[in-house]
Each structure stands twice: as structure tokens, then as C-alpha cells.
């Protein structure tokens, strides 16, 4: 059972419980293409990827964004998430191991409720940033 | 090629149902282990009417029934092999669940260049409502051509 963090007890700099995924492989990408409806061939068809001047297929940016969603819903019930935004800063290649982390960087009040801003990051096993973003979460 | 005259252009209004099987498939594809996203009994025990739609799944349903290749090539004037997803944002007002039918009203809200025109960005925003007309979310996407 999840222990829901309380606004008053959260300090700036608090690190969310991190999440590490298995290495990205072709099956990961095939499943995500089917489930997400993003059938862009550059993620699933090696021949097409090569024609697009890529050495191989690579991961959908939104797959890593979905992992960041998991990082958040592992921490708080989803109904407390007010916003989630990400910027794609690097390509996730086959063999990359996504490491998801989040840190509370701001506590504020808006629309009559207490909220925190969480800085989000998805990096690979080499410490290279692949996605950066932030989320706003309401806390009692 | 896209320019500022594209701002305000509608990219269509589409409707998509939040399907239970699709949510389970999505959960599998992202390695989700929390049973509330796959098991209705667990979802109900958590106080939900059915399986909840996870935070980024809106992006998936937004594409449904929309010819994204035509939007990228025909409307934005981009070359499919040269574009990248630059940014994606969601603002949530209310959760959605399996069985809900969502309407996506999408339009271009910004077009701009960076690096003296070497990079061209097109930003779209989508207002999402459910079958009861409730405003459940806003989705913002930025696409860049290199």
C-alpha cells in the first residue's frame, strides 16, 4: 500500500523513489508501437531507419515519457497529478537502460490547493540525459 | 513550409473511446506493475469506476482517427524523415477511465524558428473533453524539423 506524501512533511530537494527499467530491445519497441498506436516505422523497421540515415531503430520518446508517468503514479495516486511536461533532449537507443528520477523543487499554492513542482529526468546507464521535464502534483 | 499563417489552423476534432483491452496492452508495453491499471477489482478497490487511463495515454488517443502523416507533410509541410518530437505537455483537470469517450479538438498555436531558420517548430494544443462535456485535459505538442 502506497504511503501518500504530505505537503507539510516534504522538503525541497526530496528525491522520489527512483525507477529503473530493463534495457530497451526490439520487443519493447514493437509492443509500445502496437499499444500506443504510434506506428512510425523509424522505431520498428530497421530498413526504414537506415533509409532515414539512422544506424538502427530507436525508442519512441513517448515511451520514456510513459515511464516518467509510472515514476509519478508510483509516488502519488494519479488524481493528484495536475500537469506533466517533457522535453526530448536525446535519443534512447537499443540497449539503453532508462533511469527515472524526480526531485521536489518548489512548494506553492494554486487554485486553492497545495502543490509541489517535481523536476523529472530520464537518463541512460551512461548518465546521459534523454528526457527532462517537470510535473505539478497536489498534496494534502 | 509552415509559417506563422498556420497559427490558429484547426487540425481536426476527433473522438476516441478509452478501451479496457488497449489500456492493459499499454500497461504491458510500459512494464506497469500496479494492478489498478490492469485489474478492474483493484481499480474499484482504489475508488475508480474502471481501469484509469494512465497520464501519457492521452497522446495515444489524440492520434486516433487523425491522419498524422498528412498533418505533418500536408499541413505543416515537414519531411517525415527529418522531424523530431521536441516537447510534450499535459495539464490534467479530471481523470478518464475505461469506457469513457473522449473528444480531441486540436489546433496549431505557435510556429517559430531557431538557429536562423535551421530549426522550425510547430506547436499544437488539444482540448480534451469527455462524453459528459467535462473538460478533462489539455495536451500540448511541439514538433521540430531539422
Which chain pair has the greatest contact? A-B, 37 and 32 residues
What's the CATH C level of the domain at 13-23 and 60-138 in chain A?
A: Alpha Beta
Amount of beta strand of chain B: 35-45%
DSSP helical segment count of chain B = 4
Helix/strand order of chain B: EHHHHEEEE
What's the total number of strands of chain A? 5
Query: What would CATH call the homologous superfamily of the domain at 13-23 and 60-138 in chain A?
Result: Hotdog Thioesterase
Give the low-confidence spans of chain B.
none
Number of distinct helices of chain A = 3
Structural write-up:
The complex is a heterodimer of chains A (140) and B (146). Helices cover 23% and strands 31% of the residues of chain A. Chain A is of the alpha+beta class. Chain A has a domain at 13-23 and 60-138: Hotdog Thioesterase (Thiol Ester Dehydrase, Chain A), CATH 3.10.129. A five-stranded antiparallel beta sheet of chain A has the order 1-3-4-5-2, covered by helices on one side. In chain A, strand 3 (99-110) and strand 4 form a beta hairpin. The two termini of chain A are 18 Å apart. By secondary structure, chain B is α+β, with helices and mostly antiparallel strands. Chain B contains four helices and five strands. Chain B has a five-stranded antiparallel beta sheet with strand order 1-3-4-5-2, with helices on one face. In chain B, a hairpin with a 4-residue loop joins strand 3 (101-114) and strand 4. The radius of gyration of chain B is 17 Å and the shape is elongated. The A-B interface holds A 21-22, 28, 31-32, 34-38, 42, 51-53, 61-63, 65-70, 72-74, 77-79, 81-88 and B 22, 25-26, 28-32, 34, 46, 52, 54-57, 59-61, 63-64, 81, 84-92, 95, 140. Strand 2 (81-88) of chain A pairs antiparallel with strand 2 of chain B.
Amino acid at each position: 500500500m502506497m504511503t501518500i506524501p504530505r505537503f507539510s512533511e516534504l522538503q525541497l530537494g526530496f528525491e522520489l523513489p527512483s525507477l529503473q527499467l530493463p534495457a530497451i530491445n526490439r520487443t519493447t519497441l514493437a509492443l509500445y508501437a502496437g499499444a500506443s498506436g504510434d506506428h512510425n516505422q523509424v522505431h520498428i523497421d530497421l530498413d526504414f531507419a537506415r533509409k532515414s540515415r539512422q544506424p538502427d531503430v530507436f525508442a519512441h520518446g513517448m515511451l520514456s515519457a510513459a515511464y516518467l508517468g509510472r515514476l509519478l503514479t508510483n509516488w502519488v495516486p494519479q488524481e493528484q497529478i495536475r500537469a506533466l511536461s517533457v522535453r526530448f533532449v536525446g535519443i534512447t537507443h537499443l540497449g539503453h537502460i532508462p533511469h527515472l528520477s524526480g526531485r521536489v523543487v518548489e512548494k506553492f499554492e494554486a487554485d486553492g490547493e497545495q502543490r509541489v513542482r517535481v523536476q523529472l529526468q530520464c537518463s541512460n546507464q551512461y548518465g546521459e540525459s534523454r528526457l527532462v521535464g517537470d510535473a505539478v502534483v497536489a498534496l494534502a | 513550409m509552415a509559417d506563422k499563417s498556420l497559427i490558429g489552423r484547426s487540425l481536426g476534432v476527433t473522438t476516441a473511446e478509452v478501451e479496457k483491452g488497449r489500456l492493459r496492452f499499454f500497461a504491458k508495453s510500459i512494464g506497469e506493475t500496479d494492478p489498478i491499471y490492469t485489474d478492474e477489482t483493484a481499480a474499484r478497490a482504489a475508488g475508480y469506476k474502471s481501469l484509469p487511463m494512465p497520464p501519457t495515454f492521452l497522446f495515444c488517443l489524440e492520434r486516433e482517427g487523425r491522419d498524422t502523416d498528412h498533418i505533418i507533410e500536408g499541413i505543416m509541410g515537414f519531411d517525415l524523415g527529418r522531424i523530431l518530437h521536441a516537447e510534450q505537455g499535459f495539464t490534467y483537470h479530471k481523470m478518464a477511465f475505461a469506457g469513457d469517450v473522449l473528444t480531441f479538438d486540436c489546433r496549431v498555436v505557435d510556429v517559430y524558428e531557431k538557429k536562423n531558420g535551421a530549426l522550425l517548430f510547430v506547436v499544437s494544443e488539444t482540448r480534451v473533453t469527455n462524453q459528459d462535456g467535462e473538460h478533462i485535459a489539455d495536451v500540448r505538442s511541439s514538433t521540430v524539423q531539422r
